[in-house]
Each structure stands twice: as C-alpha cells, then as structure tokens.
Amino acid sequence: MRILLAEDERDLNRIIVQKLSGEGYSVDSCFDGAEAMDILSYTDYDAVILDLMMPKADGFAVLRSLRNAGKTTPVLILTARDAVADRVKGLDSGANDYLIKPFSFEELAARLRSMTRAAFGRADNRIQVCDLVLDSVSHSVTRAGKDISLSAKEYALLEYLMNNRGIVLSREKIENHIWNFDYEGGTNVVDVYISYLRKKIDSGHEVKLIHTVRGRGYVLKEGAEK
C-alpha cells in the first residue's frame, strides 16, 4: 500500500520511512503541511500519517483540506500533544486514529493495519481468495496450504490485488499505488512483477487467480476472465 508521511522532525521522518519501506509499504514523505496538502491534491494514498505541529500549515488544516475535497483516505494523527481536547478535535475533524509520541513502531504498524482493514471492509488481518491466503501481520502467503516466499514488492502487489479482488486495476493505478515518487525504473515494471507473481501464485494450479483484461489491466479473482 502507498502511504504519505507528513512529519517535520527529520530524523523521525527518516526512521518511519525506513521501517515502513522495510515492511513493504510504498512511502512518500514531506516536512510541512503546505507540501502535504499539495501532494494530497493530486495523489491518492491508502493511508496518511499526519503530524499535528508542522510549519506552514498544521495537521488540522491538512486534515480539513483532505476531507473538504471529499477524500476518505484513512488518517493517523501522530503528535506529542496528548491533551484530551486535542485528541477529540483531531478525531472530530475526520482523523481515523491518534498516536501519541513517543510510540513503538509495532503499535504504529498495528494501527495502520487496523485503519486499512476498516477501509477495505475486513474484520481481521487475513485475506483469502480461493485457496490463496495472505496474513498482513506475519506477511505470510500460502496457497493450498503451501508457503510462498515473496519479495517486499511482490507482497505489496499481491496484497493490493487481493484487497481489490474482482476489480480490474490498470497498470497506471497499480504503479501509482505500489511505487512512490522516487521510483525510476522501466515502464513495464507492473508487467514484470505480475509475471513474477503468476509464477509463484498460479504455476502448478489448475485454477488461475491472476488474469489479464486486455486493454484494461489486471484482476485477481477465482475463475477465468471473460
């Protein structure tokens, strides 16, 4: 999933980006509220981590801008301000969750999973399509009970496809959600990674789950694409 981190403490910003990237997330980051609003005006994210006390525009202003634009992107507020009034204001302004500094990365990751589960209408951390099962806590993937080893990007792509099961996703949409602004790879990167996944997910199985929809993109679902 693709995440925007808006945090003006540069060391903390760098550490969060490194840890989330290591977990397979695609992360863009910025250091002030004005830049966050600009990025959110033209890029869609699966979640936003938003510091309250930032230069140029605070987190409340960014949150209002996002919600006034009609976007329902899950937002986790990250702040040192622990007053009840601040938490209430953030949640009433449209935030989905609130995490007070200092915090553990494990709790941050768990809160992100909780927000995105709710956004995709899931009750737990397991996603299952046919006999393919993905666990977003352990990052394990099995098919017909057999473990499948995936790279971070392969895992991120599979999770995105499974979260959008039955929905045809264009190459552009997939690339925009799996790779961040820093990506400078080839134009066929999506096709390459779809090929990697097919070899690991579908090879040797009668029922194929990853399908090409000519002229439109890819879809993960049980049964042949018509």
SSE layout:
Elements: E1 2-6, H1 10-22, E2 26-30, H2 33-42, E3 47-51, H3 59-68, E4 75-79, H4 84-92, E5 97-100, H5 105-119, E6 126-129, E7 132-135, E8 140-143, E9 146-147, H6 152-163, H7 171-178, H8 189-201, E10 210-213, E11 217-220
Parallel strand pairs: 1-2, 1-3, 3-4, 4-5
Antiparallel strand pairs: 6-7, 7-8, 8-9, 10-11
Can you describe what's shown?
This protein is α/β, with parallel strands linked by helices and 226 residues long. The chain has two domains: 2-119, Response regulator (Rossmann fold, 3-Layer(aba) Sandwich); 126-220, Arc Repressor Mutant, subunit A (Orthogonal Bundle). 40% of the residues lie in helices and 20% in strands. The chain contains eight helices and eleven strands. The chain has helices at 10-22, 33-42, 59-68, 84-92, 105-119, 152-163, 171-178, 189-201; strands at residues 2-6, 26-30, 47-51, 75-79, 97-100, 126-129, 132-135, 140-143, 146-147, 210-213, 217-220. The strands form three sheets. Strands 2-1-3-4-5 form a five-stranded parallel beta sheet, with helices on both faces. Helix 2 (33-42) runs parallel beside helix 3 and helix 6 (152-163) packs across helix 8 (189-201). It is elongated, with a radius of gyration of 18 Å. The two termini are 28 Å apart. The mean pLDDT is 89.
Shape: elongated
Mean pLDDT: 89
| Gyration radius from CA atoms, angstroms | 18 Å
Number of helices: 8
Q: Architecture of the largest domain, CATH level 2?
A: 3-Layer(aba) Sandwich
Structural class: alpha/beta
> What is the CATH domain class of the largest domain?
Alpha Beta
**CATH fold descriptor of the largest domain:** Rossmann fold
Task: State the total count of DSSP E strands.
Answer: 11
Strand order of the largest sheet: 2-1-3-4-5
Helix content: 25-40%
How far apart are the termini? 28 Å
Sequence of secondary-structure elements: EHEHEHEHEHEEEEHHHEE
The fraction of residues in strands falls at 15-25%
Annotated CATH homologous superfamily of the largest domain:
Response regulator
User: How many domains, as an integer?
Assistant: 2
Uncertain residue ranges: none
Largest sheet: 5 strands, parallel
